[in-house]
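User: Predict the full complex structure for these chains.
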Amino acid sequence: MFSWFANPLRFMRLSNWLAPVCYVLAALLIGWGLWQGLWIVPKDEYQGGDIMRVMFVHVPAAWLAMASYMAMAAMSFVWFIWRHEVADIAAKSIAPLGAVWTAICLATGSIWGKPTWGTWWQWDDARMMSVLFMFFLFLGYMALRASMDTRQKAARAGAILAMVGAINVPLIKFSVEMFTSLHQNASVMTADGPKMAAVYLWPLLASALGHTFLFAGLVQTLMRAEIWDRRTAKANAKLMAEG
Amino acid sequence: MSPAPIFSAFRQALGEAWAGGAGALLPLGFFAGAAVLVPLGIGTDPATLRAVGPGILWVALALSSLVTLERIFQADTEDGALDLWLQTGAPASAIAGAKTFAHWLAAGLPLALISPLLALMFQAEASADLLRNAALYGLGGLAFYFWGGVGAALSATVRRGGLLISLIALPLYVPTAIFGALAMTDAPGSDSAPLFLAASTLFALAVAPFAMAAALRLAAD
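Assistant: Here is the predicted structure of the two-chain assembly.
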C-alpha cells in the first residue's frame, strides 16, 4: 500500500485535485463551525461565558497538534524502513504546519485560561505542558533538518529524531500527568460516548474535521512545492551539464 | 565478534574525559558555578533556598550534561576514529553505549557525589537523605547523559552542535527532571517517584544506544 503512494508522479496527479477538494471542504466545515460557534450556540457561563467560543479553534488545534506529530513520526518510520522519498517529503512538510497548529493551541488555550482560571499559564497542568514539549519536539526536528548539509542526511537524522521523540511522548505525557491538573477533563471522547451537549458537539466536530482538511490540503501543497523544487534543481543541473 | 572494541571505546572515552588538564574537575566546576549563581540571582533567604535547592541541582546537572556532551562523538568523526569503530564488526549500539557510560562515569557521577555538599550550601538539613538524593542525581544523570548522547550523535557533524543538542534533548529530559524533582519533595506521589525515575532511566538505557547507533552510522557516511 505504501509503495502505491510512494510514486511522486502518482502523488502529483492525486494531489492536483485532492488538495483543492480539501480546501473547499475545509472552508465549508470551518465556516459552518465558526458561524455556529460564534453566533448560534448559547454561551456557557460555567466555562467563562462568551470566551468559551474559542473552543471551536482551540480543540481542533489541540487535536491536530497531537495527530500531526504522530503523522510525522509514522512518515519518518515509513521512510526509514522503505526509503520512500514521498514519505520523507511528507514528514518534512508536516513539521512546520504541526508547529503552527501547536502554537495556535497554546495561544488560544492561554487566552481561554486567563478569564476562566485567572492565569495565562499554569505550570502544573499536564496537558499544557505536554503540548509545550510537543512544540519543542517540532522545533528540534526542524532545527536538526536545517543543519544537515545534504537532503539525504537531513531525512535520516530527522527520521531518527522523530521516532525517538514519538516513543518518548507517552513517557513525557505520563510524567507530566503526575502533577495535579486544573484543566477540564476530556469531555468529547469518553467511554460512555460524548458528554457534551449536541448543540456544542456538532459545530465542534465540523470545525475539527475542517481543520483536518485544511491541514491535509496545506501538507499536500507544501509537498507539491518540494517536489517542484527538486525537479527544478534536477533540470537546472541537467542544463548546466549540457552547457 | 570479540568485545575488545567495546572495551577500547570505553577506555578511550574515560581517557578523553581525564585528559586535557582539569579532567573531571571541569564539569564539577561548571556544575558548582551554575548552582552558586542562583542565590546571587534569587536572594539568600534560607527558606527559599531550601525549597529550590534540589530543583536547582537538577537543572545544573542537566545543563552540565549538555555542555560536556558536545564533543563526545564530534571528535571521533573528525579524526576518523568513528569509521574504525564501525568497521570492527562490534555492534555500534554497544560502542555508543560504552562511550556514553564512560562519559557519565567521568563527568556525571562526580556531580552526584558532590551534590550533598552543594545541598548543604542550599541550607538543606544534614541527614542521610542527602546521600539518598546523591544516588537519585546519579541515576537521573545517567538518563540525561544517554538522551543527550542521542542529540550529540545526531549533531556530530554539525558545527555549533552544542546548541542543537540542547534543543533536541530538552523534551527528552522532561520525565527524568519531573520524577527526580518530585522524589525530593513531600508532595503526593513522591514515594513512588524514585521507582519511576529508575524506570525511565532503564528505558533510556534500553532505547538510546540504538538511536545513537543509527545516528553514528549517518555521521560516518
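The radius of gyration of chain A is 20 Å.
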